[in-house]
Specification:
Blueprint: E1 9-13, H1 24-32, E2 35-39, H2 47-52, E3 61-65, H3 78-92, E4 97-101, H4 111-118, E5 124-127, H5 132-139, E6 151-155, H6 160-167, E7 172-176, H7 182-191, E8 199-202, E9 210-213, H8 214-218, E10 228-233
Parallel strand pairs: 1-4, 1-5, 2-3, 2-4, 6-7
Antiparallel strand pairs: 7-10, 8-9, 8-10
Helix pairs in contact: 3-4, 6-7
Bound molecules: S-adenosylmethionine (SAM).
Protein name: Precorrin-2/cobalt-factor-2 C20-methyltransferase
GO molecular function: cobalt-factor II C20-methyltransferase activity; precorrin-2 C20-methyltransferase activity
Pfam families: TP_methylase
């Protein structure tokens, strides 16, 4: 048995892009953690790391987790098992691990799959982050939802019929993970009567941020990137 008590697993939301949207709590946890883990592409790129790297120190261990950007990735993907095994080794040695998460860790975040695997075995602490949804609405600016309105939050990767059914009851909608699904998003929002005032926000808080009416985005020859949210509201 290990002589040291296990470390704590921290899920730390770092916001959608602008480092000014980091919370004081996130900065404190990042400053205290000896190990910083971050979701990365197979090339090593990480949007979450780019947001916080100016606040990290040389003595902190950086652990890339190749979790994102695989369209085939599912909750039972072995990539999550491998990531959990790497983090468990640090936790078993008594080191706290901060997993940095773009936006909020528990809102469509990869951290959810690590929490499922490691939560039953280790102490867990989550720092909420400013979600891309809130930052997108602020960037326009426009309300997400108001008064007695009901909001639907959907991934654009969902089946078209399911999206249409959920949107049929909604007064307002947030569509995540738009990317190559933009045409489908346009169709279902139109069918639900939500397309007219819909706005497409890409890479909010980054140098190449773009805000366009949905109809303009639909006319783009190159479509829109994965890091795009569509906000729609009947009113
Ligand atoms: C896996 S989800 C992660 C959401 C994140 N946890 C959050 O709270 O914003 C990825 C989706 O979030 C949205 N997203 C994340 N960052 C964004 C940004 N900077 N600008 C626009 N959309 C963003 C996009 O819809 C993207 O496809």
């Amino acid at each position: 048995m290990s002589a040291v008590p296990p470390g704590t697993l921290h899920g730390v939301g770092v916001g959608p892009g602008d480092p000014e949207l980091l919370t004081l709590r996130a900065l404190r946890i990042l400053d205290d953690a000896p190990v910083i883990a971050y979701p990365a592409t197979t090339r090593g790129d990480s949007m979450a790391l780019a947001i916080v790297d100016r606040f990290l120190r040389e003595d902190q261990v950086l652990v890339p987790l190749p979790l994102m950007f695989s369209p085939a990735q599912t909750p039972d993907d072995p990539a999550y098992d491998r990531a959990a095994t790497v983090l468990a080794a640090h936790l078993d040695d008594g080191r706290d691990v901060a997993v940095i998460c773009q936006g909020d860790p528990l809102f469509h975040g990869s951290f959810i799959y690590l929490l499922e695997r490691l939560g039953p075995r280790y102490a867990v602490d989550v720092t909420p982050g400013v979600s891309s949804v809130m930052a997108c609405a602020a960037a326009v600016p426009r309300p997400i939802v108001h008064g007695a309105e009901g909001l639907a939050v959907l991934p654009a990767t969902a089946d078209e019929d399911r999206m249409a059914a959920l949107l049929s009851q909604a007064d307002a909608a947030v569509i995540m993970k738009v990317g190559r699904h933009l045409a489908k998003v346009g169709r279902v929002l139109d069918g639900a009567g939500l397309a007219r005032h819909a706005v497409c926000i890409t890479r909010v808080g980054h140098a190449d941020e773009a805000i366009r009416p949905l109809r303009e985005a639909l006319a783009l020859a190159d479509g829109v990137p994965y890091f795009t949210v569509v906000l729609a509201r009947r009113a």
